[in-house]
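Form 7-S
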Amino acid sequence: MGETKRREVTKKEQEREEQSEDRNSLERDQGTHAIYKELEDQVLRDPNNPGLHRGFSATIYAGNAALMSLMHP
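Output:
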């Protein structure tokens, strides 16, 4: 009886740990996206580089996609 209870506790702990890891991963992804979005906004607001934003935007989104594929295989 004690063995079954220990397995249940271990399973619950493992589920909590997995949920925590998922939450941390989501927060990291959102933080990464926010950083890229801020950089993109700065470039779009820069009057000295009116043509730069298209290439920069494409680079940002490609970089973001690459990061996401590395973090979530």
